[in-house]
Amino acid sequence: MMLRWLKTGLAALGALAVGSAGIARAPAAPKPALWKVADRDTTIYLFGTIHLLPQGTAWQSPTFAAAARQSGSLVVETIVDEKNPAALSATMMRLGLAPNLPSVEQRVAPAKRAALATAIARSRVPVAALNRMETWAVAFTLMGTQFADMALRQDAGVETSLKREFTAAGKPIDQLETNAEQLGFFDALPERAQRNLLEGAIEQPQAARKQFDAMLAAWTRGDVDAIARSFNADMADEPALRELLLKRRNANWARWIEARLAQPGEVMVAVGAGHLAGRDSVQALLGKRGLKVKRIQ
Predict the structure, then answer these.
(1) Structural domain boundaries, residue 216
(2) How far apart are CA 245 and CA 106, in angstroms?
(3) In a domain, 26, yes or no
(4) What is the number of domains present in the chain?
(5) pLDDT of 144
(6) Whose CA is closest to 76, among 160, 156, 136, 134?
(7) Is 290 helix (H, G, I), strand (E, B) or coil?
(8) Cβ-based neighbours of 84, under 8 Å, separated by 6 or more
(9) Which of 4, 126, 141, 222 could form a disulfide with 33 if both were Cys (CB 3.0 to 4.6 A apart)?
(10) What's the start-to-end Cα distance of the chain, in Å?
């Protein structure tokens, strides 16, 4: 299982090294989905993102650009301090290291072990170091190589681009989760779910690229139904993934949005596109709270 949308979520943490060449490009007139929820003196824009993109991908539309200009602040899932990457690495190691773990080879099916060995060799991370990591942390580490193969870059991703824009305009940037809180959701996954994640991290580059291209196309044309179908398919066999990484976090964010409506102003909230699609989306939860969410792109 590739866990396509989940893997883009991992990239938000910024702990992964990625490459520089280009792959699929957005269409000439991109229109990723954008919503707003508002009351008399507050407007909150909800924008679903892809956290890493090929260099040069065009994704901003006039409608989105206007919403960003009108927003007085930006809120993202978590803020990574690019000037101090050691802080995130330390958090990841604090949560991701454990004693007396089975070898990393024993944590994938026998048929996957050759692919695992290839991924490890390409990552240049010593096997002894990986053996000390919990399975989700191994997956994070090896996904860096996979993202590099796909030429995906954090500095071309939506959140990084938005943070540059808002910082240049002197507008504040806030987060919905700390780095430790976000990593903690992965740390809490049952071992079976972590192993599925690891097997996705060693998938063949050609298959991963094909799936990403389809995901990028759906996102840029604003096809929320396609996003929801992909997300549901990826999580169908892992209820723990849906509960911990989607439903629980979406519920937290919906409560934050509802509370934020008590303060005047305009805010841009940018989170992974999978969180704004399907029956457990943030918008669906806001609707259950009696709030009207309007799609504007």
Answers:
(1) 4-20+31-295
(2) 25
(3) no
(4) 1
(5) 82
(6) 160
(7) coil
(8) none
(9) 222
(10) 31
